[in-house]
Amino acid sequence: MNLTQSTHSTVPAREPFAIAVEGVRKSFGSVSVLEDITFDLRGGEIHTLMGENGAGKSTLMKILAGIHQPDAGRLTRNGNKLLLPSPLIAMREGIALIHQEPLSFPDLSVAENIFLGRGTPRGRFGQVDWAAMKSRAGELLESLGVELSPDTKLRGLSIADQQMVELAAALSQSAQVLLMDEPTASLTPREVERLFGIVRRLRNQGVAIVFISHRLPEVFEISDRITVLRDGRCIGTRAVQATSPEEIIQMMVGRELDSMYERPNSLPGESLLEVNGLSRLGKFADISFNVRAGEIVGMAGLVGAGRTDVARAIFGIAPADGGTLRVGGQPVTISSPRDAIDRGIAYVPEDRQKHGLLLPMSIAANTSMADLNKVSKLGWLSGREERRVANSWADKLRTRLRDVAQPVRELSGGNQQKVVLGKWLQTEPRVLILDEPTRGIDVGAKAEVHHLMAELARQGRSILMISSDLPEVLAMSDRVLVMREGRISGEFLRKDATQERIMAAATGQQAGAPDEPLLNGSGSREKAPIRRQDESAGSARWMRFRELGIAAVVLLAFIACSIIEPRFLSPENLRSVLLYVPLIIVVAMGQMMVIISRNIDLSVGSILGFSAIVVGNAYISHPGMHLWAAMLLAIGVGGLMGLMNGVFVALLRVPAIIATLGTLTAYRGLIFIYSGGKQVDNNDLPVSLIRLSQGSPVGIPWIVLFAIVLAIATAVWLRYTRTGREIFAIGSNPSAALLRGIPVRRVLLLIFTLTGALSGLAGLMFASRFGYVNPVSTGAAMELVVISAVVIGGTNVFGGAGTVPGVLLGCLLLGLVNVALPMLGASAFWQLALYGLAILIAASVDTLIQRRGSRAEEP
């Protein structure tokens, strides 16, 4: 459609401003990001913010969302001053921000992603009302026309579906102001059309909408007004009817821009890349094409068609199962990226931040990373040469930077993309694969990338360009390949390619004849599409049966021990297992919560030992001390030590593994300082304490009952309280949890304190079970036992997932091992070796599941 044509409403003149930004300034250190910004947003309009990368658009959005605070200026709402000190306050004011990359919790359900941190439905007693939450989530999704079950885990859903969940979350708050940062960057044309329909409906309901996009056709289709930022300043605001794409571009870049697309007709040379029958199970099949010297071949298709999979196979990231490759006419085998680089192939990935750059490292280090031989001698890097190379590419690509020594994460998206291009051009490739080369970059940077592509083609390079931007594909390509569901469904020469023909090939229908099967570029019927493997579903099935698998292992271990050593079934031996397992369970309940939150506590054994020695010495000093007083003392001492761990981790931001490794040693030292190295013997402990391990009115030892009640309480708390669900959210995506308004620090302080308190209680139970407290052995290696039980029980070492039943089974398995190995004549070292091996196996399983889920999310 014509860019100046727009489907928009006339904003009522009487409608008051929803939000006004007056003279806002913002700096980060010495870098000024926003300077004297004045901007207004009216109810019932779609107001688009445009500007080059680094112009300040996202920073302004984050100020409106309460993530950043302005250094000067003010915000008003309907004439009244508006303070937004946090994202939570902004949400309460009816302001919702939908980020370019959805702030989702992949390990939680769709319903939880909609409501967590945004007003989770509660029952009569304050518990999470799951039925109401699922019902309301279903209604919101239905209102958006989205066919998703509220129970579905978010991991494995497409970016489009995740954005629909984010939109449902905004609607759940009855948002009056909706901030949308590049919402269409990863969507197909059909998904964009559906999103725009929803956005228009919200506008007509009086919602004020800010829309950020670099796609001019979309901007002119959806917007009522456009405001342009440049270098942190407001250049001007235009009504869509009163402006043109050319004027907006000039406002953005501050100059007349050369042609957006530069692709003169060329005469391609020899074939530099030939792909014949390339296939990968469940991804793509029978892919054949070639790219000649001086030629740009575009590859189009819907998200999920397999384009990126083909590129990754050619580059050796995920090698193909079958087919052949030729480079420069010579057959090659590429099984790794190093093989591809050595044969003159370079690959610029779609996700530059995740796969193209090392964000904490400098621009210079990133530029030289793909070819270190050119900046080193005898294996020693030359910093001077590295900087020279980086400066050279920065000049050639006109990269805007302060210094090549600055971290690459400080650059805007367009300039980061130039660093990625410079890195691969440094390898002097003959074949360049560009996967979405202009995604998420502004029109100025986009034009520069297009000019660079044209220049590389003129130099005789072969370029395979994957893009979802059809105008880009049509303008830059000499030939266009179209993929659909893992196969090439069409091939068009530049003169024959149109948007209609490409979309028909991408959707499997002829233009104008939707019921006829597509003819491919050679005129033959299209082959059946590849049915992509649902790896996320496979991962979900594995997790569903993991606990059954653990139960089976426990049963097999019990049977094996009984057969090998008949004495294992003696009442005394079974009682030993029964009394040892509760000690693990009590500590494991706390450790499970810590690991779910994506942390770890290595000090639990030392806290157990210190609490036990404190209680033992308290009995020596006060022989008549009541059992309840001793219990409160143990819990209090442990809780205080756990709180100290929480302070280091949550407030001082020390990584948990470092903080608790330090406190493990410090607390163990305190045991010897406090006890003077003396053991608390059986005679020093009262009968009332010893009886906790001997029986109860119901015939089950009290410590077993404590463990059972605690496990049930933990399961209920994690499932039905807001804080319990927040623990899972923090572990699933800490950044999203913070931006959702979840009190991350407070929750972490709480769970480290609880873990310490439970370890203290376990210290009292330990004294009861064994009848003594030894400063050397009490609690020693308990952290290894507990961590083993938790990860064996299915708690994900990467955070976000775990169940109480699984952890109970893990504790039972290790309890059997602890008692069985000495009976079988195995040394204690075998026991430690098995614990370590169990951790490695469980962590490897979690890694495999995580990777399968990540692959399922890839386009």
Give the tags:
six-stranded mixed β-sheet, 48% helix, disordered N terminus, single chain, 859 residues
Rough shape?
A: globular
Which class of secondary structure composition applies to the elements? alpha/beta
Question: How many distinct beta strands?
Answer: 24
Q: How far apart lie the N and C ends?
A: 27 Å
**pLDDT < 50 stretches:** 1-7, 9-15, 510-526, 531-540, 854-859
How many H/I helical runs? 30
Quote the beta fraction: 15-25%
Largest sheet properties: 6 strands, mixed
Percent of residues in helices comes to 40-55%
Strand order of the largest sheet: 6-7-8-3-9-10
Task: Report mean pLDDT, rounded to a whole number.
Answer: 84
Cα-based radius of gyration, to the nearest Å: 31 Å
What report would you give on this structure?
Strand 11 and strand 12 form a beta hairpin. Helices cover 48% and strands 16% of the residues. A six-stranded mixed sheet has the order 6-7-8-3-9-10, with helices on both faces. Strands 16-19-20-13-21-22 form a six-stranded mixed sheet, with helices on both faces. Strands 2-1-4-5 form a four-stranded antiparallel sheet, with helices on one face. The model is unreliable at 1-7, 9-15, 510-526, 531-540 and 854-859 (pLDDT under 50). The protein is built from 30 helices and 24 strands. The chain is globular, with a radius of gyration of 31 Å. By secondary structure, the protein is an alpha/beta fold.
